[in-house]
Each structure stands twice: as C-alpha cells, then as structure tokens.
Amino acid sequence: MVDVKKVQSWLTLFGEKVTENKEHLNQLDTAIGDGDHGSNLTRGAAAVKEKLDGQSYDELTDLFKDVGMVLVSKVGGASGPLYGSAFISMAKEAKNDADLSQLITAGLDGIVKRGNAKTGEKTMVDMWSPVIDSIKDGSLSDESIDEILQKTKDMKASKGRASYLGDRSIGHIDPGAQSSAYLFQALIEAGVINE
Amino acid sequence: MVDVKKVQSWLTLFGEKVTENKEHLNQLDTAIGDGDHGSNLTRGAAAVKEKLDGQSYDELTDLFKDVGMVLVSKVGGASGPLYGSAFISMAKEAKNDADLSQLITAGLDGIVKRGNAKTGEKTMVDMWSPVIDSIKDGSLSDESIDEILQKTKDMKASKGRASYLGDRSIGHIDPGAQSSAYLFQALIEAGVINE
Amino acid sequence: MKKIINEPDHVVDEMLNGLAFAYDSLVTRIPETTVIARKVEKSNKVGLVSGGGSGHEPSHAGFVGKGMLSAAVAGQVFTSPTPDQVLEGIKAADEGAGVFLVIKNYTGDVMNFDMAKELAELEDIDVEFVIVDDDIAVEDSTFTAGRRGVAGTVFMHKILGAAADSGASLSEIKELADKVNEQLFSIGLALSPATNPEVGKPGFELEDQEIEFGIGIHGEPGYRRETLQPSKELAKEFVTQLKKEMNWSEGDRYAALVNGMGATPLMEQFVFMNDVKKLLVDDEKLDLAFRKVGDYMTAIDMAGVSLTLLKIEDDQWLDYLNAPVDVIGW
Amino acid sequence: MKKIINEPDHVVDEMLNGLAFAYDSLVTRIPETTVIARKVEKSNKVGLVSGGGSGHEPSHAGFVGKGMLSAAVAGQVFTSPTPDQVLEGIKAADEGAGVFLVIKNYTGDVMNFDMAKELAELEDIDVEFVIVDDDIAVEDSTFTAGRRGVAGTVFMHKILGAAADSGASLSEIKELADKVNEQLFSIGLALSPATNPEVGKPGFELEDQEIEFGIGIHGEPGYRRETLQPSKELAKEFVTQLKKEMNWSEGDRYAALVNGMGATPLMEQFVFMNDVKKLLVDDEKLDLAFRKVGDYMTAIDMAGVSLTLLKIEDDQWLDYLNAPVDVIGW
Ligand SMILES: Nc1ncnc2c1ncn2[C@@H]1O[C@H](COP(=O)(O)OP(=O)(O)O)[C@@H](O)[C@H]1O
Ligand SMILES: Nc1ncnc2c1ncn2[C@@H]1O[C@H](COP(=O)(O)OP(=O)(O)O)[C@@H](O)[C@H]1O
Ligand SMILES: [Mg+2]
Ligand SMILES: [Mg+2]
Ligand SMILES: [Mg+2]
Ligand SMILES: [Mg+2]
Questions:
Q1: How far apart are the C-alpha atoms of D184 and D188, rounded to whole Å?
Q2: CATH number, position A141
C-alpha cells in the first residue's frame, strides 16, 4: 500500500523542484514552445502548497483529488489540464487499493485521455510511459529517469506547441518531460517507491 | 535692374544646392527639429525644376510668383509657407522696378508676416536679415554668409519646432538658416549680385 | 524588457480592471474571475464565449458586447485560462438557450475549454463549440497539433455574435461555425518578436533585416526566415500561400482582414492592404466584399501583420459581418 | 529601419489608397489629392476639416465619417499638408454653412492651414478655426512656438463633430471649440523613438531602460529623461503635472483618454488606465465621466502613452462625446 504521508511529501517535493527549476523549465519551453512551462507549474506548485500546508489526509484519493483540482484551476495552458487529469485519474484509482505502478498507470491514462499523445510524440507521455516500466521492474532511479529524459531530445514533436517546429524541435529536451522527471525524482526522494 | 535670366539660374542653382545637401539639412533638422527640412526642400526643388525647365520668363514678377506658388504647394511643413511667402512677396515687389536689396527685403517681410519671428529667434530670419545689410553695403560673400550662419549656433530657438528644445537648441546651426545660406551662396554664384 | 507595467504577474489582473473601468457602460468584470461579460439585458438567446491566453488584446474582451461575444475569459499571458474560469464565463453568458464556445486551436485552449464544457454540463448548461484552425502556415494534424487558431477567430466572433443576436439556436450556431471555419484561412509574418512580461525576454530573435513568415500569435516559429522585402512582396507571399489552399476563381466573394500584431503602426497596415488589394482585386479579380484593417488579434508587442480571408458562402455572412455592434474593439 | 512599406516616399499615397479601399463605404479619397472625405449626403451643415502630417494614424482620416470629421487632409510623414491640399479638403467638406478647421499647434500646420483659409475665402467659403494646444509639457508661447496640439485633438474632433451634426452654426462651433480647448490638457511619454520612413533613422535615441517624459507626437523632446519606472509611477508623474495645470477639486467631472503612441500594446495601455483610475478616481476623487483607451493620435512606431484630460464644463460635451459615429477609428 502506498503511504499517504509519503505521497504528501512527494508532492510537496515536486512543487519545490519545479519552483527551483522554474527558469530552466522556461528556457526549455522557450526553445520549442512559448517559454512559460516553468512559470505555469510554479504557479500551480504555489497553489498546491497553499492547499496542502498544515493539512493532513487520511485517504490517498482525497489528496490526489485536491492536488488535481488545484492544478487544473491554477496552471492553465496545456500542462494544467494534463497534470490535473493525471492526478484526478490517480485519485479514482486510489480507491481500488492500487499499488504504485497501478497509480502511475492511471495517471498516464488520464494524460492520454486528455491529450491523445502516443509515445514518441515528444511529450510528458515519453517520461510517464517508460517510468511505469521501470517502476514495475524495480529499476527506477535518478539515472534511469535522466536516460529517459535525454531520449526526448531526439524526438520530433507532433503534439503540443512544439509540433509547430517540426524538425526544428529535434535536439531539445521536452519541457513537460523535464517537469515529469522532477515528479519522479521527487517520488524516489520522498521514499514512496521503496516501501 | 535685376536680370531675369540670372535670377532663373540663381533659383535653379539654389535647388541644386538644396538637393545635393539634402542629408546635411535633414541632419541639422534631426538635431533640433524633426529631420525633414532637407527632404521638404528637395521635394520643392524638384517641383521648381519641373516648372522652370525649358521655360523662359520676360517678367521677374512671373518667375518669382511661379516659384513661390510651387514651393507653397509642394513643400509643406513650416518652410513651405515661409519660402513660398518670401517669393510671392518678392513677386509683388518686382513689379516696382526694385533693386536686389529691395527684393530680398520684401522676401524677408513675407517671411516675417507669415511666421512672426524676430531676429535672434534662431530661424531663417537670422540669415535673411543680416544678408540684406551685407547686400546693401556690398559685403556679401561666401565668407560673410558662413559667418552669419555660424551665429545661429549660439541662439536659443523660440520659434518653430526647435523651440521645444529650449536651451538644448543652443549649439546647433538652424536648418532653415542653412538652406537660406545656400540660397544666398547661389545668388553670388549665379552672378545676380554683381551686375 | 521595456514595458508600461507594474509587477509582471499582475499584468492580467490590472489590465482587466483598467479595461472594465474604461468601458464600464459596455462590460463588467465578474468579481474574483478573469471573465469580462457584457452589460446587456439577457433575452434567452445563445450565449457566445471566447477567450484564451492574454496578450492578444483587443482579443478577446474587446469583442464583448451587444452583437458579438457575451463573455471573454482571459488566461495568464499566452496561457490558456483554466476550466473553472471558463466555466464562470459560460455561466455569465448563459441566458437559458445554451452557450457556444469559440476555441482557438491550441492544445492548452482545447483541453481547458473542453474540461469547462464538461463542468458546465454538470450544471445543466448546454454547451457546443468550434475549434477555429485558420492558420495555413502549419502542417495538418497528422504532423502537428493541427492548424492554429489565429486572427480569423475575430470574423468567427462577429458572424456568430450577429447570428446569436438574431436568435439562432445553439445547433444552428454550431452548424454555422463549422461552415465558417471551413472557409477561414490566415497567414502571418513577424518583423520582431513578442516579449511576454512574465518571461522578460523576447520569445525568439530576428536579425536586423530578417523577418519570419508563418509565425503564430504567441511567437511560434513559422516556415521561413528571410530578408525583409517591400510590402508588395510580402503581400505576394501571403497571396501565393493562400491561393494554394483556397483555389479561388475570378469573382469569388471574400472578406479580408489585415491584422496588426501589436507593434506595427496602422500606417504600415494600410500600405499592406493596398498591396493586398492590387493582388487580390486587380490581378486575381476577387470580390473583397468586406474589409478590415487594424489590431484585432495581437501578440503583445510583436511587429508584423497577418492576412485573413473568409470565403463568403452565404449572403447572410456578409450581413452578419456588417451588423452593428457595441464593443470596444471591432 | 524595419517597416512594411514599399518606396518610403510612396507611403502616404499607398496608405491613403489602402484606407480608402478598406473602408469605401465610409470614406473616399478625393482624386489627385491627399484628402479623405466622408460619404455622407450633404445637408447644409458646417463642415469639419482636420489634418496634418501623416504618421498619426488613425488620426486624422480614421475620424472621418458621420458625426465626426467631414474630411481629413494628410501631409507627408510628420509634415503639414500644403495649403492647396487643405483647400481641397475645405471644398470637399463645404455644405454651404461654412467650414471649421481643427489645427494642431505646430508652426507648419498653423501656417499652411492659415493660407488655405485665405484661399477658401477667395472662393467665398466661410472658414473658422481652432488651434488646439493641449500639450502641457511645453512652456508657453513667450518661449516657444506655444503648446503643441496632441491627442486631445481627438476629443475636439468628437465634440465638434457631434455639434456640427446636430446643426450648430459656424460661430457656435467656433465658440464651443475655444471653450473646449481651454479645458483640454495632455501629457505624453516615450519608451522608444519613432522612425520616419522617409528619414530611415529613429528621431532620437533612448538607452535600454531610459524613457522620456513630455515628448511630442513627432518625437519632439520632452522635459526629462529617466529610468523606466512601474506604470503607477509613470501615471503619478502625469497626474502631478496635470494637477499643477488644472487645479481640480473633488467631484470635478472629466473625460480621460489614455492614448497609445503606436507601438505600445493595448495590454500596457489598460494597465496604465488602471493606475490612472487609482490616482484620479480613488485618490483625487474626480469623476471620470468619459473614458477611452487605445491608439488615437500616434507617432508612427513610437512606444509610449499619453494622458488627456478634458474638464467637462457643460453636460452637452458629454452627450457629444457619447453620440454615435460612423468612422474607422473612434
Ligand atoms: N497532447 C499532449 N499530450 C501530452 N503532453 C502534452 C501535450 N501537449 C503538450 N504536452 C506537454 O505540455 C508541455 C508544455 O506545457 P506548457 O508550456 O505548460 O503549456 P503551453 O504549451 O500551453 O504553454 C510540453 O512540453 C509537453 O510535454
Ligand atoms: N516662425 C518662423 N519664422 C521663420 N522661420 C521659421 C519659423 N518657424 C520655423 N522656421 C524655419 O523653418 C525651419 C524648419 O523647416 P522644416 O523642417 O522644413 O519644417 P518643419 O519644422 O515643419 O518640419 C527652421 O529651421 C526655421 O529656420
Ligand atoms: Mg508553454
Ligand atoms: Mg523639419
Ligand atoms: Mg503557454
Ligand atoms: Mg516637418
């Protein structure tokens, strides 16, 4: 079973990482998008922090739902509905006593339902999907996350704003994959993965 | 008596000088105005050339009137009505068998009636007025013209666009005085003065 | 960054307050939201809502008022508004006959407006929508997120607004919107980039005499960079691209919009329209039955223009375009 | 210079053609002239003519139409039109009840319009005029050519246009114009200079973070350069200067115009209006009974804003400001 407290510190950590790396995310998004991915998620992280601070949850589903709703209503752009849908979908899955890989899989389903991206289209999906495999076979680590992230470099975007660049999107890391990398690094750091 | 043919070559020469020095006049006007004095007068000179080319005048008054009307209707800005009024006023005076100094005095009267400037206000008046004295005492030369011109440098503008600069207009030659300097240099060059 | 603003992240809030104050006879800001709604007696007609990231002013709040939008929802600069805000816009627009959403085809807008639609339906408001995708500079959706929604959106607002005002039903408006969207084509170019105040740096770089064809309204890249050419050559490039798409014939009737991107003076826009006229009317013999020139869908302080053509398939579309409105920016 | 133009010295001609083509239901260009006249049945009312150098678009042709100007006369860029052109404008505007000229106080405009008046009188047309001098940044006429005519001119057009439309006589309009002019005050600032296409270089230079207060609409210098400050500080400087001039009291009624100089996006103009509102309405307790925000009197591609205040001395002025018009740019 996934521990609610640990998940809460996971999500808090995620917010911190995103906030610390706001400029880096904006820069990645400037290269192949509109330069706001860091600002968008930092706005979301601040709202999540405000929501979670001093709050304690008994049920994982409630925690995920609150986070999802806050992200949906504060982030905007493409990443708001995508991350929001991921957490709302995880909230639903959490009702079924799901394990971590089941939860993350539900999150990915939420993203895909909302954004219709397949793997290889240079989006956050290209982080979530291989991460799920790594979680399943117990190989998730900062190194494997970084390896997955680097692979988005060579991809040509065909979803989201980066798709307008066509071939010129090649050679750049996808900002959404980077922010999702922070999410999964935070997962490891918060110890959610090792229980 | 002032010779019509010589006056015609005087005015043609004036147009050439203005056209050659278009950039210089624009630069002077950029410093203390809106940078178009050269363009304005070049436009006027082209129209005067078109009017005079192949044309020959019996009466000085007709020549001055044509030039005045063309300038008024082609130059615009401040200098159009001013130069235009000068020549129209000279056209009137030419009917009275006037000599050169009387003609130029009439021209200055036209300028002053239109623009209400006194000497010392850093305008073309500060060229015309001393030039009349020089013509009267037979001392007009390229050197005396240049001396008069340089004196506009130290003046503070209180008429025309340069007046908005206040003290900052000091230290720059007045563009209208410069174009009038070309007019009187042309006068010498065309031999109108020495008959 | 040289801008007349206070805190960069207060720009949207302060802009909406400034707009609502200046034009308080026409519009109002719904408290605690980024929604600008019109001050018009509700009369059981279809409500029309649009919106998107800020930075496109006068879009979209500038088109709120009688005969055009019922409400506009503003996001952060260049960032789609969130579903809850769009929902507030829908509620403000609802007069009991359903609400129609005009969405520009950008991933973020589509997803957020779609979620808002779901939320509104939970509150028993009928919602339909059109996704405007008029930007021909972009390859189609097999390769990209699909053609972007750009300045043509303003014609959509005008036509649907007049239709709604005349009492058209939600399904009639949906049908009309789809037909208009099929005939709506735009293309743009940039002379200089936009600077998002929250980012602080230009979105891209152009050399001194370099321009970019096919740019989007958030500074998305276009299809070609080259040296600045005379207006008539720029117009020719647009017309060539549009002709490839549209396959017009002599005498076809069109509405045309020359749109400034934010920092391009009207002087240049009128010169450009003059060149467009020579190409489309004098050479191609099209009938440009409706014309507009000005800043309608901007990209903050980008310099550049776009050209939108709408093929008039139905006389009524022209009537709708010409119908009087009471808005800030039309 | 990066501009969407063809030959620099064709800009005015092509711009007028583009405008007349785009808006041919409202206006027409009088052949062989730079006059844009309205397409309104003549009805023996006073004709209203304005104009000046080009580069101030939508001024002045953008205000030609029913309820506002009868005709606008365009000069070369930043250069007053010549008397013969103004005369053509007067003739186009003449409906038999005399023609009123709105002149901005610049030496060239005053002289050329004055000569045109003389020419018109030779043709038995009664002509009266006002010289608008609303720019408080300039010292008075003992030291200068007098205060410049800037964005406030647009309020003058609107008020006189409505008065003319309602049948006021030439002398009544003259009286009204003088009264309005006395209550009309403007002040502007620039973030970046204008580039006259015929000159090809910016009219002045500003450092990266430098702005200039008190700038004129042709890039004439102002009274102070300093580092860019937040919008609210800029607004405060304007309000402080205006207050010195106007000596208002709580509750006084004003019309306010926040005017963009050409390259400043509406986003910033609305933010600025929000700060103006805080100072004038919340702090000074003035009643800003009429408000406008947008590009009305520009300086080509200058970035910056101006603020105009008109003290409403008569309820009718407000009615005139609010009266409907059929023009491109109001
Ligand atoms: N259809 C999609 N499916 C999955 N992820 C997507 C999709 N479209 C965009 N993204 C992700 O969103 C990221 C951009 O988010 P952000 O910059 O916040 O939004 P916007 O593009 O609206 O400015 C991209 O880097 C990409 O990872
Ligand atoms: N009131 C005046 N009387 C005499 N000369 C004047 C007056 N005002 C301006 N000038 C002259 O006109 C010149 C500027 O002409 P120009 O640049 O062509 O017109 P504008 O100032 O309208 O751009 C000045 O340098 C000055 O010599
Ligand atoms: Mg982005
Ligand atoms: Mg000049
Ligand atoms: Mg964005
Ligand atoms: Mg000039």
A1: 14
A2: 1.25.40.340
Residue A82 lies in a domain: yes
Q: Say whether pLDDT at D220 is over 60.
A: yes
D218 CA to middle of ligand 6, Å? 8
Are the beta carbons of C14 and D275 separated by less than 8 Å?
yes
> What tokens does A116 get?
């219709």
- Confidence bin at B194 (pLDDT 50/70/90): low
d(CA C269, CA C243): 21
Is residue A164 one of the residues assigned to a domain? Answer: yes
> Does residue B40 lie in a domain region?
yes
Helices A79-94 and A37-52: crossing angle, nearest 10°?
40
pLDDT tens figures, B143-174: 999 999 999 999 999 999 999 998 999 999 99
CB contact set of C225 (below 8 Å; sequence gap of 6+) = C206, C210, C211, C212, C213
Average pLDDT, chain A: 95
pLDDT at residue A195 tops 60 = no
Q: How far apart are CA D202 and CA D182, in angstroms?
A: 33
Whether the per-residue pLDDT at B195 is higher than 70: the answer is no
Asked if residue D303 has pLDDT above 90, the reply is yes
Nearest ligand to the CA atom of D108: 2
At residue A194 the predicted structure's pLDDT band, cuts being 50, 70 and 90, is low
Ligand 1 site residues (CB inside 6 A) read A 29, 33-34, 36-37, 40, 77-79, 82, 111, 115-117, 123-125, 159-161, 174-177; C 79-80, 107-108
Across B106-115, C65-74, C132-141, least confident range: C132-141
Q: Which residue(s) pair with D101 in the sheet?
A: D49, D129
- Could you say which residues from 90 to 109 on chain B have a Cβ atom under 8 Å away from some Cβ of chain D? none
Q: Give CA C273 to chain center in angstroms.
A: 19
Residues C288-308 pLDDT 10s: 999 999 999 999 999 999 999
Question: Is the confidence at residue D142, as pLDDT, over 90?
Answer: no
> What is d(CA C147, CA C156) in angstroms, rounded to the nearest whole number?
16
Domains in chain B, number: 1
In a domain, B195, yes or no: no
Domain range for A45: 4-189
The domains found in chain C, sorted by start residue, are 9-182 (3.40.50.10440), 184-322 (3.30.1180.20)
Q: Catalytic residue numbers of C?
A: 56, 218
Q: Tell me the average pLDDT across C22-33.
A: 98
The beta-carbon neighbor of B78 closest among D111, D216, D218 is D111
Q: Give me the interface pTM, i.e. the ipTM.
A: 0.93
Neighbouring C-alpha atoms within 13 Å toward the C-beta of B137: 6
Which chain D residue is nearest to residue B71, measuring alpha carbons? D82
Of the candidates D298, D205, B19, the one whose C-alpha atom is nearest the C-alpha of residue C263 is D298
Tell how far the Cα of D109 is from the centroid of ligand 6, in angstroms: 9
Among D268, D249, D264, which residue's Cα sits nearest to residue D296? D264
Instruction: For residue B23, give both structure tokens.
Output: 């950039």
Distance from CA of D185 to the nearest CA of C (A): 19
Task: Report the side by side order of strands in the sheet with C224-227.
Answer: C224-227, C210-213, C184-192, C303-311, C253-260, C287-294
| Mutate: best of B111, B113, B122, B164, partner D, most D CBs <10 A | B164
Average pLDDT over residues D307-329: 98
Give residue-wise pLDDT tens across range A87-142: 999 999 999 988 999 999 999 999 999 999 999 999 999 999 999 999 999 999 99
Tokens representing C194? Answer: 């936009």
Ligand 2 atom with the smallest distance to the CA of B34 is 23
**8 Å CB contact of A76 and C216:** no
How much of chain D, in percent, has pLDDT values that exceed 70?
100
Query: What are D47's strand-pairing partners?
Result: D99
Tell which of C82, C119, C302 to mutate to test the A interface (max A CBs under 10 Å): C82
Rg of chain D taking only CA atoms, in angstroms = 19
